[in-house]
């Protein structure tokens, strides 16, 4: 990693013997009281354990170069092999997204059986659309409840405010053609800029993404498998066709990952977590709209997108940004799942495409399962559910009830989740949750030891994966629902030295 090498970590640990460091780590309260991730002695201990354990297991056979290879991943030549589909696959109809069921009065009225089935199976009356109507405004703040006070509610709402002002909040619910992501192409320059090479085009696109705040940017071919089809204008209640309504035929999809703040997300599922979730959406809208405008200025058609138009995780995997995890989110090497994703669809095709990569993350998830343990709504498959294929299969039924997985994309080999239970918890929490991302073993502010251990995985993958997922919470990473983390978050601005070592601002933690 560019700034996470052993050399740059070394000085943090100078002046202490390994025994002193280990003793400090042991003396700290279990769970870390919310301060563990920022405690350098504990990090140092964890690193040493990882190094020592890894080195012992590897018997000196693996080198730093091997670690670097683990961080870079293995390129996959065949795009179809990155995410496999079977004969039951068909494109995802946007009307079958949980977000559409929740936001659209038309779809809600058309499918009352979905609410009825969910209510019956979960033994409570629940209506997705009714719940969504007051979402984020239903539960009054309580100043005696850390994480749910007026202070916490205020930062939650303020984080989203630019999207409210631009009438584009609905793009988080996959609404297409919002003000931030207009389909209007009247400003496409008449003259098309000609790049000297495909490589130069890719460099220019990624340079623009970087300067506007992207943590990662990848470029892939448009793949109709990952587009919602038909599209659905939730606000107008009508289906949209790619051929008849979308303003051009896309050839390329640029995918951008935006890192969220470690300390804010660590407070999940408290309302303070929304300070970075909402802000992530604002940056998505900002960068993707700037990128689309940039490409239109070069004489090519372009439309920015947030959660709309297509499956961002699938496109991000194809663009080589990471792998899908058990929690169905993208896990980005060096950042983890702590990212938001946006896309730009364009007809510019004279560009160098990225390849998907294999980092062994999905394999890791088979024996981890920390996210499933942290999920308050049991929306994620547990590791123990071996008879059900760990949830990693082309389809995954969360119940014996026929049709229960109406909102899942069948025919895709991945971890399937129950977004209905997830969304139900959001309504009860009056806020998005984020526990699964915060608890993820890959969600750490300091990474190189993690990838060192992953590099050792060829020696004893099952054992090391299991060890890594068990040690993660032991060192205070990943615990959720911890009020101490809310207190810690509200002190991260002290002196504005939020990231003196840039540990949390992972946008700079590149892996080159
Ligand atoms: S966001 Fe929360 S409720 Fe939803 S899947 Fe993740 S942990 Fe579960
Ligand atoms: S917590 Fe573990 S199982 Fe869940 S996504 Fe992260 S690595 Fe995979």
In short:
The protein is an alpha+beta fold. The chain has helices at residues 6-9, 18-27, 40-58, 64-72, 79-82, 98-103, 105-110, 112-122, 128-133, 150-165, 198-211, 262-265, 274-297, 312-318, 361-366, 370-374, 419-429, 435-439, 448-455, 461-474, 483-489, and strands at residues 74-75, 216-221, 231-233, 238-240, 252-259, 302-305, 323-324, 330-331, 339-346, 357-358, 392-393, 414-415.
Determine the fraction of residues in helical runs and give it as a percent range.
25-40%
Question: Sheet bearing the most strands, described?
Answer: 4 strands, antiparallel
Bound molecules: iron/sulfur cluster
Number of strands: 12
Radius of gyration: 23 Å
The CA-CA distance between the termini, in Å, is 6 Å
The helix count comes to 21
Lateral arrangement of strands in the main beta sheet: 2-5-9-6
Primary descriptors:
512 residues, single chain, two-stranded antiparallel sheet, binds iron/sulfur cluster, 4-stranded antiparallel β-sheet, alpha+beta, globular, disordered N terminus
SSE inventory with pairings:
Blueprint: H1 6-9, H2 18-27, H3 40-58, H4 64-72, E1 74-75, H5 79-82, H6 98-103, H7 105-110, H8 112-122, H9 128-133, H10 150-165, H11 198-211, E2 216-221, E3 231-233, E4 238-240, E5 252-259, H12 262-265, H13 274-297, E6 302-305, H14 312-318, E7 323-324, E8 330-331, E9 339-346, E10 357-358, H15 361-366, H16 370-374, E11 392-393, E12 414-415, H17 419-429, H18 435-439, H19 448-455, H20 461-474, H21 483-489
Antiparallel strand pairs: 1-10, 2-5, 3-4, 5-9, 6-9, 7-8, 11-12
């Amino acid at each position: 990693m560019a700034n996470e090498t052993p050399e740059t970590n070394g000085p943090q640990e100078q002046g202490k013997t390994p025994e002193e460091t280990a003793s400090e780590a042991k003396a700290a309260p279990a769970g870390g009281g919310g301060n563990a991730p920022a405690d350098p002695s504990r990090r140092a201990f964890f690193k040493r354990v990882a190094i020592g354990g890894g080195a012992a297991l590897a018997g000196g056979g693996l080198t730093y170069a091997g670690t670097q290879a683990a961080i870079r991943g293995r390129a996959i030549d065949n795009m179809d092999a990155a995410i496999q589909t079977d004969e039951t696959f068909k494109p995802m109809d946007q009307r079958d997204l949980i977000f559409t069921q929740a936001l659209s009065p038309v779809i809600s009225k058309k499918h009352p059986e979905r609410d009825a089935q969910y209510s019956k199976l979960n033994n409570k009356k629940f209506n997705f659309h009714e719940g969504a109507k007051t979402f984020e405004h239903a539960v009054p703040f309580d100043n005696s409840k850390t994480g749910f006070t007026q202070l916490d509610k205020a930062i939650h709402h303020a984080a989203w405010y630019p999207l409210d002002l631009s009438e584009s909040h609905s793009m988080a619910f996959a609404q297409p053609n919002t003000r931030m992501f207009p389909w209007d192409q009247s400003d496409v320059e008449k003259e098309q800029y000609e790049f000297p090479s495909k490589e130069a085009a890719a460099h220019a696109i990624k340079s623009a993404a970087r300067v506007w705040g992207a943590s990662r940017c990848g470029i892939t071919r448009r793949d109709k498998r990952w587009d919602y089809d038909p599209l659905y204008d939730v606000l107008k209640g009508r289906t949209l066709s790619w051929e008849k309504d979308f303003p051009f035929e896309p050839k390329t999809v640029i995918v951008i990952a935006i890192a969220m703040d470690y300390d804010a997300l660590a407070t999940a599922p408290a309302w303070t977590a929304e300070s970075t979730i909402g802000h992530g959406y604002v940056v998505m809208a900002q960068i993707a709209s700037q990128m689309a405008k940039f490409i239109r200025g070069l004489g090519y058609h372009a439309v920015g997108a947030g959660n709309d138009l297509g499956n961002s995780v699938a496109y991000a995997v194809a663009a080589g940004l990471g792998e899908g995890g058990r929690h169905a989110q993208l896990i980005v090497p060096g950042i983890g799942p702590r990212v938001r994703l946006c896309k730009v669809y364009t007809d510019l095709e004279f560009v160098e495409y990225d390849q998907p990569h294999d980092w062994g993350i999905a394999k890791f998830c088979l024996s981890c399962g920390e996210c499933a343990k942290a999920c308050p709504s049991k929306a994620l498959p547990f590791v123990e559910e071996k008879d059900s294929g760990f949830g990693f299969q082309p389809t995954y039924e969360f119940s014996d009830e026929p049709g229960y997985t109406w909102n899942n994309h069948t025919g895709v080999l991945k971890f399937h989740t129950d977004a209905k239970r997830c969304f139900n918890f959001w309504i009860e929490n009056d806020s998005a949750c984020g526990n699964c991302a915060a608890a993820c073993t890959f969600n750490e502010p300091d990474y190189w030891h993690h990838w060192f251990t992953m590099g050792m995985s060829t020696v004893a993958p099952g054992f090391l994966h299991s060890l890594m997922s068990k040690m993660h919470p032991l060192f205070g990473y990943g615990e959720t629902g911890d009020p101490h983390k809310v207190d810690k978050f509200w002190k991260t601005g002290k002196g504005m030295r939020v990231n003196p070592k840039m540990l949390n601002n992972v946008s700079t933690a590149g892996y080159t």
